[in-house]
Amino acid sequence: MFRQKKQPPIRSLIGEGTRIEGPVHFTDGLRIDGLVHGDIRAEADKPSMLVISETAQVNGEIHAWHVIVNGVVRGPVFASTLLELQPKARIEGDVHYAALEMHQGATIAGQLHPSVDEKPALRLAASNA
After folding, report:
1. Domains in the chain: how many in total?
2. Of 6, 9, 50, 126, which is the most buried if we count CB atoms within 10 A?
3. Is the residue at 7 inside a domain?
4. For residue 63, what are the domain limits?
5. For residue 90, is it within any domain?
6. pLDDT over threshold 90, residue 80
7. C-alpha Rg value of the chain to the nearest Å
């Protein structure tokens, strides 16, 4: 079957009802349920996961390895490995990604920019190879 890389643990939370003004820097994993006015950036060269929940809103630029969105993002998103857009995701800005998973109901008001650095290996789901 497909090998899945171990995801970094979510070590930080910006809770619902919390408002952050200014840039946010994190390592490993971060979950946002509140409001962030500022750029969000994971530590470069390390695997990271950012979860933007259904109740969250981010106004700023996002940089992380794996980004999961189910809330509102106003600004560009840079996901160096995977961008997952859940059904209630709303992005107003360009998205840059290596791989994209988009559920029905998610919307993007911006341009899609797939990474051209390397092509992902393609495997058939029914393949035993």
Report:
1. 1
2. 50
3. no
4. 12-113
5. yes
6. yes
7. 15
The β-bridge partners of 97 are 79, 114
| Placement of tokens 């933007």 in the chain | 52
How far apart (Å, rounded) are the C-alpha atoms in residues 46 and 109? 29
Does residue 32 register a pLDDT over 60? Answer: yes
What token pair was written down for 65? 């390895």
CA distance 123 to 87: 25
Q: pTM for the full model?
A: 0.86
Tell me which long-range contacts 62-69 makes (C-beta under 8 A, separation of at least 24). Answer: 63/39, 64/40, 66/7, 69/106
128: left (phi over 0), alpha (psi -120 to 50) or beta: alpha
pLDDT per residue as tens digits for the range 33-79: 999 999 999 998 899 999 999 999 999 999 999 999 999 999 999 99
Distant-in-sequence, close-in-space partners of 119: CB < 8 Å, separation ≥ 6: none
Give the residue from 88, 85, 4 showing the smallest Cα distance to 47: 4
Domain membership of residue 119 (yes or no) is: no
